[in-house]
Write a structure and sequence with these properties.
This protein is about 50% helix and about 20% strand. The protein is of the alpha+beta class. It has two domains: about 120 residues; about 110 residues, Immunoglobulins (Immunoglobulin-like), CATH 2.60.40. Strands 1, 2, 4, 5, 7, 8 and 9 form a seven-stranded mixed beta sheet that branches. A two-stranded antiparallel ribbon has the order 3-6. Strand 7 and strand 8 form a beta hairpin. Helix 1 packs antiparallel against helix 2, helix 1 runs antiparallel to helix 4 and helix 3 packs antiparallel against helix 4. The radius of gyration is 22 Å and the shape is elongated. The chain starts with a helix and ends with a helix.
Length: about 240
């Protein structure tokens, strides 16, 4: 019976750590892209507000054509045509453009700019900065975003992201079930491990959400928390084994 429990614990912690490690690496890369984008373009005149609707692709492969998108809403009673300056990374020179985009009164419009492997900088990143100039009562807004590009031409970035996400969730869930099944009855040591695993699960999920939303500051805190908690869980298991 004890041998069976040990096998369940070993298999459970292995699957759990596999999901945690893949999740941690994934959200570190996603947040790293946004962090690099923040510093990549250098100084620009400050905007009145952040451009919170700016989005880059979650993940790209070298065969992808992705889109940098923003959503603008004209909540005034006048037809407007705000000027928008766009800068996109490149191997040698930043690609930039500035155009006016008409917005009818009350209209919400989605704008997009295509990005490919030709826009890759540092060998793995596609980054963008968009500045929306103020128009009438609408404030100026600015934001940056970034995407990690992976050299897997036979797979789309979205497919790769979904496969990785499924792997993470399945491994963490199965790991929890097997580890708990092999750790009963729950003693004080197990309770400490459960708390560490719970915080680790929350940190990875929050890190992934931060990567999707572009909250790279939150991503940094999640990275530190994950590394410390992984150490706690591994040390516990080595003592228990």
């Amino acid at each position: 019976m004890q041998e069976k429990k040990k096998i369940l614990r070993t298999l459970g912690i292995t699957l759990f750590i596999a999901g945690i490690l893949v999740g941690t690496v994934m959200f570190i890369f996603m947040n790293w892209a946004y962090l690099e984008a923040y510093f990549y373009f250098g100084y620009t005149a400050p905007a009145n507000k952040p451009l919170t609707t700016l989005r880059c692709p979650l993940l790209m492969t070298t065969s992808d054509t992705g889109e940098v998108t923003i959503q603008l809403t004209n909540n005034t009673k006048l037809d407007l045509a705000p000027a928008i300056s766009t800068e996109i990374s490149s191997f040698d020179m930043v690609r930039s453009e500035e155009n006016n985009y008409p917005l009818a009164a009350g209209e919400t419009r989605k704008l997009s700019w295509a990005v490919t492997s030709n826009d890759m900088a540092f060998g793995h990143l596609v980054m963008a900065r968009v500045f929306v100039f103020g128009a009438y009562t609408l404030p100026s807004r600015s934001g940056t975003c970034g995407t990690v590009m992976v050299n897997l031409p036979g797979l789309s970035g979205m497919a790769l992201f979904l496969l990785a996400l499924i792997f993470i969730l399945v491994c963490m869930t199965a790991g929890w079930i097997l580890w708990l099944g092999g750790s009963r009855p729950i003693q004080i040591q197990e309770q400490n491990a459960i708390r560490a695993m719970l915080f680790l699960t929350i940190a990875v999920l929050l890190g992934l959400i931060a990567g999707i939303a572009g909250w790279w500051v939150v991503g940094i805190f999640c990275t530190v928390a994950c590394l410390l908690l992984i150490l706690v869980v591994v040390v516990y298991y080595l003592q228990k084994a």
